Amino acid sequence: MKEFNYREMNSELMVPEIMNLVSKIHEFKGKQELFVRAKPDILKAMLEVAKIQSTGASNRIEGIFTSDARLEELVSKKAEPMNRDEEEIAGYREVLNTIHENYDYITLRSSVILQLHRDLYSFHPSTNGGRYKNQDNVIEEVDEKGTRRIRFKPLSAFETPEAVENLCSAYHEAINEGRIDPLILISKFVLDFLSIHPFNDGNGRMSRLLTLLLLYQQGYIVGKYISVEMLIESTKESYYETLQESSIGWHENENSYLPFVKYYCSVLLKAYKDFSDRIETVAVDKMGKSERVRDLFDKKVGKLSKREIADIYPDISVTTIEKALSDLLKEGYIQKVGSGRGTTYIKNSDYEGPEEN
């Protein structure tokens, strides 16, 4: 039977690389309250943007899609789901909102995980919601020739309920003892949860929702304002590679948590860096909104899309951004790259200043 021993620190994790990551995250957490107090109006806008990004990214990782416009409408509850993908997106929105609003009152245990999974499928007629898997499952990968091979065989359906109970108990015992850093414990919990693969469907999305829940409960609230799910989506190959590396020997209790813990802590550190940069960028009171768009091109190396600018400056309306881009194009300060939805903008390296009259 798989054992979950979280009370002992794995010696492999006591390496400078992991300790440095954890230490840097702690530093950002220490500044977190200052960030939160800095610009309440901007943080509120960042919160709404992050909800949309998180809901979209976590579902896209699993091959669940809708348009950007529909995604925004679904997350803001301005539209009802029209197909299966949108039903699953709406369900994710509900669980994400539950965690955002109630994380201090949610106890991690098997019955609660089942309730959250039920809510994940609350818009979908599936009977799988809120039930552990009723048949054994495997994690497969498909090569470029279309050949399938089993990458990992999770615990059987029979073993799953007890394993989830044991996993939650092991996590609580270690957290309550306080000897091992919560960041290490949360990363290990996520790896073990994914290796159990307790549901017929929705395992990846549940793992990311539980990640946010556990981080928030330990005071790491960056995921409210910066989409951790989108950072995982942008590093999806590393996510799957480290998941595979850390699952080797898992059934025999001989797996190495190091690759996955390193990856997860790196993602969280990137989220905090983005949060810090975003707050510093929007904290410039003396600069007008159009000037801030211009300033962004001075600081950014490479192309920027209209959506990226809106995400960085959630307090600036799309209309204002479009006007600023139009003015910068006329001035010759930036250049347009591509057309349609793929349109991006880049600073004109040949710009020599406004022409004199």
Automatic annotation (TrEMBL):
PROSITE patterns from the entry? FIDO
Sequence positions that bind ATP:
D201, G202, N203, G204, R205, M206, S207, R208, Y239, Y240, N253
Q: Which domain of life is it from?
A: Bacteria
Residues forming the catalytic site: H197
Any idea which GO molecular function terms this record carries?
ATP binding
Residue intervals of the Fido domain: 108-266
Alphabetical keyword list: ATP-binding, Nucleotide-binding
Protein name per Swiss-Prot or TrEMBL: Fic family protein
